[in-house]
Design brief:
The chain is an alpha+beta fold. Helix content is about 40%, strand content about 20%. It is built from ten helices and 14 strands. The two termini are about 45 Å apart. It comes from Takifugu rubripes.
Length: about 290
């Protein structure tokens, strides 16, 4: 299973580079590509201990004392809630791997190993980062049988996850078509997952990066620019407070003396355009 999470010299960057490079190469060859971003609900909390130990023994080959160590690590764990100094009764934990631990991410990756074999059987490309799985397939618009192959793969993935106590969320799973626009228009932009139709999105957020259908990253650049511009604008407005123009009658309103506006960030929406032109003349960064 190709996994970029919890590995040395791997990160979200390597996962994104791999998938983006494959999609761009396919587009250069006149192909359209379909990307499916699978969404799992509380993946780390639903790992079944019995299945995990069976997988460690029969798939990974861990036996004897080493297997007993893992069994001891997972067993006899309890959890409780503590509210206003009052603890609840203890509840035994039979599912999930300890998050924030060293072994937790490794055990989750091993638990997910069979998923890679299922995807490979259908000839679908994939790349994972922790519990985020990216499936993608490149094809010519007339090769509709490959679209059926992707739907069959999704069906098998859903079945495997159900049998392994993992919850695939069709409502949050996203689907997108990439490639030259004339070719995209010739393709039926819809697949189904668990009876739910997934329509191709114009943009999706993948591991913190916004993808658009042309892989131009214009949407992502605009978002990052806007996010970076807001703190700058706040600092600009804070500097405006020391301006001699503060004695202007425009700023004599009792509202500006409110304790709520004591922070240097609060003047941003109330300063008149006279003092803060960038904030009031445009929503995004200056071009």
């Amino acid at each position: 299973m190709f996994q970029s999470g919890f590995r040395a010299h791997h990160s979200t960057e390597t996962a994104l580079l791999k998938v983006t490079n494959d999609l761009l190469i396919a587009s250069d060859h006149g192909l359209v590509s379909m990307l499916v971003l699978l969404d799992l609900s509380a993946a780390f909390d639903t790992v079944d201990h019995s299945i995990l130990l069976h997988r460690l023994e029969h798939v990974i080959g861990i036996k004897g004392t080493a297997l007993d160590w893992f069994r001891s690590y997972l067993s006899d764990r309890y959890q409780f809630a503590h509210v206003h100094g009052v603890p609840s009764s203890y509840s035994r934990v039979s599912h999930g791997v300890p998050q924030g631990s060293v072994l937790g991410p490794i055990l989750f990756t091993l638990y997910m190993l069979p998923l890679g074999n299922i995807i490979r059987q259908h000839g679908i490309h994939f790349h994972c980062y922790a519990d985020d799985t990216q499936l993608y397939l490149s094809m010519k618009p007339e090769e509709t049988e490959k679209l059926l192959k992707l739907q069959t793969c999704l069906k098998d993935i859903k079945s495997w996850m159900s049998s392994n106590f993992l919850l695939l969320n069709p409502g949050k799973t996203e689907f997108m078509v990439f490639g030259p626009e004339p070719l995209r228009d010739r393709l039926d932009h819809m697949i189904t997952l668990d009876g739910i139709s997934l329509t191709s999105s114009l943009s999706v957020r993948n591991l913190g990066v916004t993808f658009d259908q042309n892989l131009s990253f214009n949407s992502h650049i605009k978002l990052v620019s806007r996010s970076a511009f807001l703190p700058f604008c706040m600092c600009f407005c804070a500097l405006c407070l020391s301006s001699p123009l503060l004695s202007s009658p425009l700023l004599s309103s009792p509202l500006l003396s409110s304790p709520l506006l004591s922070s240097p960030f609060y003047p941003l929406p109330v300063l008149p355009p006279l003092l803060c032109p960038p904030c009031h003349q445009q929503e995004g960064p200056p071009t």
